[in-house]
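Pair request: fold both.
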Amino acid sequence: MPSKDKQAEVNSLAQILTKLVYIFRRGGEASDYNWWNKSSSRSIFYPIYGYEDGRELYEQVVQGILSLNPDMLSEYEVNRRLMFDFLEDQTISVKQEQHLKDQKLISEASNFIKRLIEFKAYHDIDIPIANLWHNEQPVEFLDVTFRETTNDELKTWEKKLSAFWHEGTKGVHILARVKAPGDEQKAIDYARNKVNAVLEVFRAFCFPFGKKSNAWRVGVVGDIISYTSTPMSIDGSKFLSRIGNGIMLVELNKHILSVIEQKKWDLISNFILKTQHNKMEKKVHDSIHWLAESTKPDTNNSKFAKISFALETLIGGEASEEDLKVRGITAMLAERAAFIAGKDLEDRQSIDKEIRKFYGMRSGIVHGSEGEVSLDDIDNFGQIVRRLALSILDKIDKLGDEINTVDKLESWVKLQRYTLLEDTTKEVT
């Protein structure tokens, strides 16, 4: 049974829905079945004169129902059920003398809305992943289970989806399964978001940035371009069908899961699964997104710029005006990076030097003074920011609220700067 507050909302929506029925019972243009067809000019979607007053009421009912059961219902499903399971039945599918009226109609409308807001369903959604290989036991990561496809499954998919299962999907060896809540449309959207979130984590922490990156065409079928060859002609007579680096079949365990030790995967998983993030954690989350984006096909300078976005998002933020005058943004980022990721004095000095170098190149790209950056520079910059992301996840796990904002992070860095050498050694070991 709905709570008192929900029941009041249901009663209000039932009154609006009843008004809507009376509007549509006026007859005329809405008397034939084409009125329900989205392509028809005599449609609830494109109401002619005389039905405009019903459109606003209809939207109030749809949005009201969605707000009462947002985790289970999609707008598509509410539209479908409202039109064909209620409005059609109460307007054109039965004779006028059989129409419900007054309190009986309100009661029927209320019961219809209750059924929708009490609706619950779960679906196993399988999503094909291009160019990823796994022939061992299924692997679960976050809320997604990766498993090998069978020949029978692939034949069934090809038969059922012959219009979509084109040559580019021959590289499918894995299905990503998500147990998703909601109606079918809601479950599909939920599952796609979960799978893409996991692939984004894999990209951010395991995919190559420069060299070989174009060969790692892993992604949801339909979202990823599954080939790197481009058909070209030379002088209008010679045709080439293989231009590019080819595709690498990425193994889930060998190339992704095993390249990071389990305790780091645990750090990443625990972080991603958190339902609420403080300000610093939100920055890390956004930085992971930019790291992932920088592994996708793009120009060298664009990939490099995305890595710099990841760096700025991860540990950037306003220092005091006095600090900026004295040090500048590059020095500030370099110092923060050195203290967060550096293991000892030599390592910190190396990180400081690298960040200054690469962030300086970023400025050259933005201002047009830098030429095309090399793949080696992209790789090296990406790797250092990736290492920094893992280090700050570790710091967040250990220090918690001590660095939950940029200001607190800056205070922590200053503390490290002025800590005696023997105390620093204790802190970093």
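--- second member of the pair ---
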Amino acid sequence: MVTFTSSLPEKTIELLNEMAKKMKAPKNEIINRALIHYLEAIERQQYINSFKKLAGDQELLDLAEEGMADYYTQLENYEKK
């Protein structure tokens, strides 16, 4: 485990202290869970944004359609066997 030191606003510390008491959990555990949750949310949003960006890429859409046509042909050939 690595030690990390940071400054937080007083109100944030007060909320953290209250939550630690309610949860009967160490403050560092609450901070760790919150940070992991936040970083995962950012990653999900970046993933979503990349798909939105690619949705308007006509070359990529054409490539996907071509791939789907090939896949459909393979399925038809498989069913004929």
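Observation on the second member. The helical segments are 10-23, 27-55, 58-80.
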